[in-house]
Design brief:
The termini are close together. This protein has a single domain, classed as Serine Threonine Protein Phosphatase 5, Tetratricopeptide repeat (Alpha Horseshoe), CATH 1.25.40.340. The radius of gyration is 16 Å and the shape is globular. With 211 residues, it is mainly α. The longest helix has 29 residues.
């Protein structure tokens, strides 16, 4: 079944609420190994997104996602702003003027977003970043599609893989970002970026479950 423009809008709205509900937890995670601002920054960014969203509700999916990305770039501080902006903007560029998409389109868009994040952050798997949730999620999504899973099941498996990747950041030593300054002391703590990314993919799976 198709993922419609309104489904994409509903996902953005849902994720904004998820950030609102979890911003304190994200900031606490960041307090231990970062600058203690990830949750607050994401909250501010998605409040701005919600203010901007009505102006693009009649546009194509690509425009919607690129607008989310540009808004986050202007409102979210720290490393999270450029990285999340890139994730949304590259995904939007991949989808172009589509008014609806299927799960294969989403996989391509997610892959484009991940490549953009990896290039900008110069990070790779096991560096204790958001990529430790994103890469497994993409792999699981592609595998589920190849196995003929429904859209809902493919997205569920993607979110589950992201969650596992998030938990796998706990024992890792950070090699990128503010956490890398702590060296071995960064081990034993869950990465906040991988956590907010997991929340994003869980929101996708929940919102598009019946698509």
């Amino acid at each position: 079944m198709a993922i419609l423009r309104d489904d994409v809008l509903n996902w953005v709205r849902d994720y904004a609420q998820v950030i609102e509900d979890n911003h304190e937890m994200l900031t606490e995670l960041d307090r231990v190994i970062g600058d203690a601002d990830h949750g607050a920054n994401m909250r501010r960014g998605f409040k701005a997104v919600m203010e901007k969203l009505p102006s693009v509700e009649d546009k194509d999916i690509g425009t919607i996602l690129k607008t989310v990305g540009m808004t986050l770039l202007s409102k979210v501080g720290g490393a999270g702003g450029p990285l999340y902006s890139t994730l949304f903007m590259k995904a939007g560029m991949s989808l172009g003027a589509k008014m609806e998409m299927d799960v294969n389109d989403w996989a391509k868009a997610l892959e484009a977003g991940i490549l953009g994040v990896a290039t900008l952050g110069k990070a790779q798997l096991n560096d204790k970043t958001m990529l430790d949730a994103l890469y497994p999620a993409l792999d699981a999504l592609k595998a589920a599609i190849a196995d003929g899973a429904s859209t809902g099941n493919a997205l569920k498996k993607s979110a589950e893989a992201a969650h596992a990747g998030m938990l796998a950041t706990i024992p890792l030593i950070a090699h990128k970002g503010r956490a890398s300054y702590l060296g071995e002391r960064s081990a034993g703590h869950q990465d906040p970026g991988a956590t907010s990314t997991t929340l994003l993919l869980e929101s996708v799976a929940k919102t598009w479950m019946d698509c």
